Amino acid sequence: xxxxxxxxxxxxxxxxxxxxxxxxxxxxxxxxxxxxxxxxxxxxxxxxxxxxxxxxxxxxxxxxxxxxxxxxxxxxxxxxxxxxxxxxxxxxxxxxxxxxxxxxxxxxxxxxxxxxxxxxxxxxxxxxxxxxxxxxxxxxxxxxxxxxxxxxxxxxxxxxxxxxxxxxxxxxxxxxxxxxxxxxxxxxxxxxxxxxxxxxxxxxxxxxxxxxxxxxxxxxxxxxxxxxxxxxxxxxxxxxxxxxxxxxxxxxxxxxxxxxxxxxxxxxxxxxxxxxxxxxxxxxxxxxxxxxxxxxx
Length: 297
Fold this sequence. Notes:
two-stranded antiparallel sheet, single chain, alpha/beta
């Protein structure tokens, strides 16, 4: 069975999440090791009960990805998980990334899309999260973007990116389109961590999509500002190029650990959007139609 294409277009989709990720060796913080199976089963069951049946899991190789964990979680909770392939950003690359060519790196991604991840039946269906450093794209990161473009051109799978604190999104887009990727197959991630109205409009003008995917992380950027920007985008008729998510990465983000939990987006943030005057049709675009069309690509 092809577990990479089970996305139901009638259901809500979180576009940028993590379920098993381990950045603790890099950050020297065990909170950055998210592997809480029982707690995640509970949270995924709650999401399913609220109409969120799809989740794009953007943990790629060397970020602590665990395909069997995802398979088990799908089986027990009923959530559908779309897995990813690729490399994150310079700080987290293993040594071989610098040594291999873009073509070699692309082949690794293609193999995980076409053959499966780590010998399991789970195949990657997203090239993500392909990242750049804060305020710059290093030469090795540029090579990974090239590899992602090659993998996309070979498989048709969409590309989802990581911007560090909402920097370099337009530059990422120029790189990928320069390598032959059509803008409508690219979503620029983490566009909701700083004020950048003109940049957002320039990205959207190309036909690419953007993600407001750190919802609930008010210590980085307040949700009130996210709401205001989403309202302004909706008023310009641009909700059709926006996706929503939370980018949960830590144990302390889970509801059982007194964090916001995955349901925060549905239970708290969506009511904020409605209260601000954003129509339900725009919410359905951002949470259902846009991701379900994009990630089926």
